[in-house]
Design a protein that fits this description.
The protein has four helices and two strands. Strands 1-2 form a two-stranded antiparallel sheet. The longest helix is centred in the C-terminal third of the chain and has 38 residues.
Length: about 140
């Protein structure tokens, strides 16, 4: 996987920042409706899909990939975890310091980043423990 060592959640972070500052893309905002995505539900409500919703859905899919990446061991994985922690710290700093980041969409991206950090560590520890048990079992079964 070529993205090992690169936290994929940087992508929604960057997209959010591009959309949150109206001088960059004034016609698209986080509250813009996604064209062509509207469902009439049985309850009688028309459900509309917004750019911020799309960004959250995209981030959740990337979180899945990040968790899969955590199942690999090695130096690149440790580097990836370090970058994920740095990204999470940047999320927190931006959330508390920049008014354009004080939104529910950004907060949910921050939570996704947090889950990436703790989930990545949890998965890596379990994979390392399993690999150590397999090595120990192989060592015991090999005649000396």
């Amino acid at each position: 996987m070529s993205f090992i060592g690169f936290p994929l959640l940087v992508i929604p972070f960057a997209i959010y920042n591009v959309l949150a500052f109206p001088s960059l893309f004034p016609s698209v905002t986080l509250t813009s409706e996604v064209p062509g995505v509207q469902l009439h539900l049985l309850s009688g409500v028309d459900w509309k899909f917004y750019t911020g919703d799309l960004l959250i859905a995209f981030a959740v899919l990337l979180l899945y990939v990040e968790i899969l990446k955590a199942t690999r061991l090695g130096r690149r994985n440790a580097f990836d975890h370090t970058l994920s922690i740095i990204l999470f710290a940047i999320f927190v700093a931006e959330f508390v310091a920049i008014k354009q980041a004080a939104t529910s969409t950004f907060f949910l991206l921050l939570v996704i980043s947090f889950v990436d950090v703790i989930g990545g560590f949890a998965v890596s520890v379990r994979v390392a423990r399993r690999d150590a048990q397999l090595v120990e079992a192989a060592r015991r079964s090999t005649p000396h």
